[in-house]
Amino acid sequence: MVMRLIQKGSRAFTSQQYTILSAAAVIAIIYLLSAFLGFIRNRLLSGYFGDSIELGIYFAADDIPSLIFSLIVSGALSAAFIPAFTKSYKNNEKEGWNLTSSMLNISLVVFLIIGIFIMIWAKTISQEIIARDSSLTQENLVLMASIMRVMMLAQIILIFSSFFTSVLQSFKRFVIPSLAPVFYNIGIIIFILLFIKRLGVFAPAWGMVFGAILHMSVQLIAVKKLGFSYSFSFDFKDKVVRNVYKLMAPRAIGQAAQKFLNPLYTNLALFISAPSNVILTFAMDIQMLPVRIFGMSIGQAALPILANAYREDDTKEFSDLLLKTIRQIIFFVLPVSILMFILRVPLVRLTIGARKYSWEATVMTAYTLGFYCISLVAQSLILVLARAFFAMHDTKTPLKISLFAIFVNAFTAILFVRYMHLGVWSLGFSYALGSIVDAGLLFYYLSNRLENLDITKFINSINKIMLASVIMGIALYIPYRALDVLIFDTTRTIGLILLTGIVSVIAFLTYMSCAWLFKIEEFNMIIVTIDNRFLKKGFLKFQGQGSDQPVLKSED
């Protein structure tokens, strides 16, 4: 019996997921675990450093390494590499692995060249780009440069991981790639706990390096089982390799432009005050939870299935899948955004509240989080809508839209902080405005391109979801205020946990009851998915066991 459980557990990690909802469910559960560890990491950081200058510098130091990584690899890789690898592997397994090795080697060399430049000029970059016009001292800038050099090492290791992630996703193995960030956070947490007193703020920085090694190692084992064979090749003249980079270019520019907002936001936050960068980072981390769990998981699972529908020239199926995916995201994210908006203060206190994290910083973090919540649906939809264009082999349209949205974002952020002298919360508001513009334009151009879109049915479904969410919000707010004032002592952690837990359960039951009453289709899909996976097939049984082919099916 024990061996049977072990075998089932092993298959759960290496099996294929064919439908968007089933694959997204697997990814979302692991994202939730990763997010939980991320909150533990942030809680430790706030506990040791509070809203200090040192922690603000640590967060700021990561902007440039992340920007370079996004420019060379990051999300652009999955958009262009997965279709090319899938096609090459089907033609010839060796050809597929050679493509992987060539692109890995080329990307690594390019990153090393840029990385060496960054490491040499780290202090100048810190002074002239990230902390320009801030109140940071020369000692602060030297610290930022030193941390930045350490973080560059982590990004080099993550290049390997990114390719392994794309390979596993090509085979529809979503569990291990989603699990890798869990190990990444574990690495950071271990170094914080073991070395914080000796290394100070360098402990989480070196933890990123250790976490990156774990992130890579767990995926290396998985791709080796699929037959990956590394070769020291730089076949840039290969037509497939050049075509992948050609497709990657627009997406890479878009990713880099999006990441450009990070140093801009950091600069503006540091312009306000060094602790403002800590507030902004923590608020962003909290609001990213539903975006990762629902937007990233569903978008990541949708790309290969949408690509398969488009490749088979089935425009009706493509359109139906797209609208269904959009509805699923709105069904999950809209009520969560309302829940987070109402419970923003308890959430901040539970996740990063510590003795060294001041009450003023807690209130401002919650205030900033409230503005981020406005765009949670838009942020999540961007991840699916952009991938719909990628599935149609169009990376230029989302790039143009993204650049315009980034302009709106940057313009409003600079206007709010530099000229209107608003607080750090205004950066959350400007980010929300840019995200809404981005999602709106993506949907507009996508709907104009596609035929057979049943917009009437789509709008009716969205109206039901919105009504259910509003009812949930009202049902949530009343007991929240009553319990907060009359029942629980929220100055203590246990009271805060009970308040948040009880109110969240009330919100969940209210929303699901409304979804059942209004006959919202997504509610029925959840019931069917739970019934098929947990009741009929058993908890650890997955679809597609035993196949090592990156075959894409479009059933949903």
From TrEMBL:
UniProt keyword Membrane present = yes
Keyword vocabulary terms for this entry: Cell membrane, Cell shape, Cell wall biogenesis/degradation, Membrane, Peptidoglycan synthesis, Transmembrane, Transmembrane helix, Transport
Q: Which NCBIfam families match?
A: murJ_mviN
Q: Which organism is it from?
A: candidate division WWE3 bacterium CG_4_9_14_0_2_um_filter_35_11
Q: Which GO terms describe its cellular component?
A: plasma membrane
Similarity comment: Belongs to the MurJ/MviN family.
Q: How does it sit in the membrane?
A: Multi-pass membrane protein
Q: What does this protein do?
A: Involved in peptidoglycan biosynthesis. Transports lipid-linked peptidoglycan precursors from the inner to the outer leaflet of the cytoplasmic membrane.
GO annotation (BP), single: regulation of cell shape
The GO terms this record gives for MF are: lipid-linked peptidoglycan transporter activity
Q: What is its main location?
A: membrane
* TM stretches of this protein: 20-40, 64-85, 97-121, 141-167, 174-196, 202-223, 264-283, 289-309, 329-347, 367-389, 401-419, 425-445, 465-482, 494-518
Report the subcellular localization. Cell membrane
Could you identify this protein by its name? Lipid II flippase
Q: Which domain of life is it from?
A: Bacteria
Q: Which InterPro entries does the protein's record reference? A: Lipid_II_flippase_MurJ/MviN, MurJ
Q: Does the keyword Protein transport apply?
A: no
